[in-house]
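[INFO] parsing input record for Epithelial membrane protein 1
[DEBUG] input buffer:
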Amino acid sequence: MLVLLAGIFVVHIATVIMLFVSTIANVWIVGSSNTGTVSRGLWLLCNNTCSQLSVSSQEEASLKAVQAFMILSIIFSVVALVLFITQLFTLEKGKRFYMTGAVMLVCWMCILIAVSIYTARFTGAIEYSTNPHHGYCFILAWICFCFSFITGILYLVLRKK
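[DEBUG] output buffer:
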């Protein structure tokens, strides 16, 4: 049982770190240009130098929603981690980690909403580039989506023995 708890803890820590990286880094979409690689993230557009991401007024609300839900997912993931550690030392044997699982599933839902909006609205062409494709931040966000769902479900069914 201790090995299972340690494994879940490690996956949870990895999820938090990957959420930070995918939210902060600016490599959600990558393309090629005549001056090099162009990357677009949630915050900046980087060619040789990074500049503020310019979006149309129609896309601005979608981008703000993606930014907000990614930040919320980080917050909920950290809160779930603190809850897990707290419940690990305060719950009696045989009790379940319901609160931790519920908060982690809220994190999962925030990631789902953010990445779905980004997929629907921003996977087109990048300014000044050709051949756009998804970058590692987009892929990390989907991996975090899977990890947060798995850990959320495991927290709900896990008993402390």
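[INFO] The beta strands are 29-33, 36-40, 44-46, 50-52, 130-134.
[INFO] shutting down worker
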